Amino acid sequence: MSLSPDALALTLSRHVELSNDRCQTLAMLIVGVLNARTVNLSHIASQVGGAALVASSYRRLQRFFQYVRLDEDWLAKAVVTMLRLAPPYRLCLDRTNWKVGTRDINLLVLCITTRRARIPVLWDMLDHGGPSTMAQRQALLSRFIALFGADSIEVLLADREFIGNQWIEFLVEKHIPFVIRAPERLIVALDDGRCMSLASLTRHRYLGRLETLQGRFEGMDERFAGTLRFAAKRRRGTLIVVVTNGGSKTALNSYRKRWQIECLFAHTKTRGFNMEDTRLTRPEKLSLLIAVVTLAVAWAQACANTIKPNGDIPRAKHGFRRKSWFRIGFDTLRNWLQTDPPRATQAWDTIWKRLPKKLKPNRVV
Q: Distance between the two ends of the chain, CA-based, in angstroms?
C-alpha cells in the first residue's frame, strides 16, 4: 500500500491556483522525490502508480516544468507559516553549485534556521560560475525585507565569500545584524587611527584585546567609523576571524550556527533528494524544482515534529546527535508513505491548515 497523490492534490487545490491536473502532478512530484530520493524526472516517473506508461508519466512531468511557475515570494511566506517559524529569524546566506555537463548550476540561497528547522526561503539562479555579486546579494536580501521586514532578522550569518565594503555598508544602513567571517588579508581602520590587517590584529599580542576594538574596513566611508567589531579564535590550527555590527563577545558562538546551511545543502543533495541528479538547466525550471523540494522538506519537518514534539535526539559518545531532525522526519515520512498513508496525509494536511487562504500565488501559468 502506498500513498495516492490525490489526497495531497485535494489539499493543494485549496491553496494553490492550479488546475486539478496540475495539482495532481505537483503532488506526484513531491511524493516522487521522497520515494525515489532523487529529483531526476525519469526516476520519479518510474515511481508513479496506475495504468499510465512510464514514458507518459515522464512527459507529464516535463510539461509541468514547461508551463507552471509558482510565485517564490508566496512560497517563502507560506513555508514560514506552515512551519510556524516566528521572528526574529536567524538567516544564513550561501551558494551551492554543481555542473550539468559543461553548464554551471550556481544557486544563491537564503535560508531560515532554528534548532530543529533548516528551510530555504529565497534563492537566485546565478548566470555565471563563481561568487555572487553585491547587487545579487542585495537584491535577494531586499526581497526578504520586503516580505518580512528588517526588524524580523535576528542575525545574518555568512562565510568569507560574502564580504566587501559595499555589502557591509548596505547591511549597516539597513540595520541588519550580521556575523560574517572575514579574510585575514583585509585592512581595518581602527577608531584610534591605526590601520592594520586582520592578520596583524590576530597575532598573540593583540588577540586578547581584539574584541574591544572598533573600526571599519579600509575604503569604507568615514561615516561607518566605529560600526564594526571583531572576534577570532583558533580551531584545530585554523584561525577564524569574524566581523559583526553587534556584540563581539557572542559573535563566534553565533557564527557556529552558519554550518546549518551546509547541512541543508547536504539534505537536498546526497543525504536526501540528490539535487545534482537533475538535468534541468533553465533558471525558471530549476526554481520550480527547488520549490518542490522545499515543500518536501517542510513535510518531513512536520513528521519530525509529530514523532518528537518536545523531546531531544540522543547523542552518541562523540557528543553529536545520532540523527538530525531532518533525517528523523525524512525517514519517518518515507516509511509512512509506504506503510501508513493516512498518517502521512494527516501530517501534510496539518501544515497546510496553518496557511491562510489569502496567501495564494499570484504568478502561475
A: 34
For residue 153 the three cell numbers come to: 532578522
* Domains of the chain: total: 1
Q: Is the pTM of the predicted complex or chain greater than 0.90?
A: yes
Instruction: List residues bridging with 96 in a β-sheet.
Output: 107
In a domain, 220, yes or no: yes
Give CA–CA dist 303/118, Å, rounded: 14
Contact by Cβ (8 Å): 30, 4 = no
- Give me 321's grid cell: 546527535
AA identity, residue 102: T
Asked if 235 and 241 touch (Cβ cutoff 8 Å), the reply is no
Q: Which of 267, 242, 233 is nearest to 162 (CA)?
A: 242
Place of cell 531560515: 112
pLDDT digits (tens, 9 = 90+) for 180-216: 999 999 999 998 888 989 888 888 666 678 888 899 9
The per-residue pLDDT for range 115-138, each reduced to its tens digit, is 888 999 999 999 888 899 999 999
Report CA 232 to chain centroid distance, whole Å: 26
Within a domain: 219: yes
